[in-house]
Amino acid sequence: MSANVSDLLRRRAAERPDAVALVEAFGTGRTATWAELDATVDAVARGFSARGLVAGHRVGLALPNTVAFVATYLAAHRAGVVAVPINPRAAVGEVSRVASDAGLRLVVAGGPAVALVREALGDGGPPVVVHDAEVHDGESAWDDLAATPGSGVPPSPADPEILATLLYTSGTAGTPRGVMLSHRALLANVDQVSRIDPPVMEADDVVLGLLPLFHVYGLSCVLGQVLATGARLVLVDRFDAAGTLGVVRDHAVTNVPLAPPVAVAWAGRDDLRGSFAHVRTVLSGASPLDPDLAAEFAASAGVVIEQGYGLTEASPVVAATVVSPGRDRSRPPRPSSVGHPVVDLDLRIVDVSGREAHRGDPGEIWLRGPNLFSGYWPDASDGPGADGWWATGDVGLVGDDGDLVLVDRLQELVIVSGFNVYPREVEEVLGELPEVAEIAVIGVDDAHSGEAVSAYVVPAGDVSREQVLAAVGAQCETRLARYKWPRDLEVVESLPHSATGKVAKGRLRSRVRAGELGLA
């Protein structure tokens, strides 16, 4: 059993040195064989050591889906330092907060993210390594990092429990928290998915690398399985319905991991079936997929979408329809099902009294397994208990067939295109504005992104609606990533409150639902 995620690369380089591992389907069209990627990872790991980084130091990765991202991520692991992926299109304030909270010692930034990182770090921040952009004074070039001379790499700790990756998510506290994923957890989930029979990915697969690598879905489910199988990963930087479909066709892609908004954009297209001529497997995760959309997509593509359920804290795969016993992959999975749990993962449904719920009754989903995180940064708080169980905060039930069905969430988490948005975070950022007296944020259904953010604002004093809209727009531009911006912003005279003075968000949700039904 491997102790380090980068060991997977070492094996592929030994087995298939000349096979193409990575292809950038944009820009320069860079490629890398397994041997070339392994050599680059060694060089970058030496470069980290030459810059004074030692085991446990944190390195930020603000890079798009590129060969450089993959090489830098794996080099961090090989050097024993902690990889901290950052959304390269995040707001300045978010990047600044992650850099400060994680205590980054170095940030590797690429393309448009370079300017973002410079502004977020300011003077006196950690050094910046630049990829695909002009290098300023005090910075260094990634190409130089990747050409660090020497042989071998600095030794990294052999303990699989050491921290490998720090991924920021909303967690359960309402503000972004760093999820501490050890090598043990990441490798366990790669192994759990690899043991699905029949396999969801094999060595001869050509995999679409559209999902962002800064997100656990792209990082572990896609890249992790590519490393485990030796498949080819075709990297795509941004989604364009026609352009990305062209990538699928031109590269003879066989395996398509996606999120619901991609299915929305592709379903019903006349050219979908032809472009999917080589596709064998389509996997959807990150957020629930509407059954009608799944049926339309299958009719258009000639391939059904398999669904799954995961959490950053579970590295991330918990369950998938491809795990369900006797699953016929030529037919769509049962609506609302996310399948069976992966092997070596215990799952139970707990009712409000703390007891095991009866079969078919909803309750909170609890997990126990080797793929669970170590806790939240920096002190490993709120992780699995002494007995190994961790309460997810999600509500589900197990049907008579043993499949897991997601019902709701105990928290108010909103999932926009697979990305977590916690209403309290948005409320705190927008509530800082002098134009805002009170604010409430909820999640609402959205045909394209699964869910969207909706905000209700009570203006301060004589502030006009136009002034509120302008102030909120400016605040969002600098403080929140685009997917966290309210899709709907309603300026109201007052908000409903409970007897204890808290905003009664249930009434706001009921108002939205009534409007959807034409009752408002």
List keywords for this structure.
25 strands, 5-stranded mixed sheet, alpha/beta, GMP Synthetase, Chain A, domain 3
Task: Walk me through this protein's architecture.
By secondary structure, the protein is an alpha/beta fold. Among the domains are: 1-9 and 35-158, Rossmann fold (3-Layer(aba) Sandwich); 414-516, ANL, C-terminal domain (GMP Synthetase, Chain A, domain 3, 2-Layer Sandwich). Helices cover 30% and strands 25% of the residues. It contains 15 helices and 25 strands. The strands form seven sheets. Strands 4-3-5-6-7 form a five-stranded parallel sheet, sandwiched between helices. Strands 12-13-14-15-16 form a five-stranded mixed sheet. Helix 1 packs antiparallel against helix 2 (34-50) and helix 2 packs across helix 3 (67-79). It starts with 5 loop residues before the first helix and ends with a helix.
Write the layout of secondary structure elements.
Elements: H1 6-15, E1 20-24, E2 31-33, H2 34-50, E3 58-62, H3 67-79, E4 82-85, H4 92-102, E5 104-110, H5 113-121, E6 128-131, E7 140-141, H6 142-145, E8 163-169, E9 177-182, H7 183-194, E10 206-209, H8 216-229, E11 232-235, H9 241-250, E12 255-258, H10 260-266, H11 272-275, E13 281-284, H12 291-301, E14 305-310, E15 317-320, E16 340-341, E17 346-350, E18 363-368, E19 390-398, E20 404-409, E21 414-416, E22 419-421, H13 423-431, E23 436-446, E24 450-459, H14 465-479, E25 486-491, H15 505-516
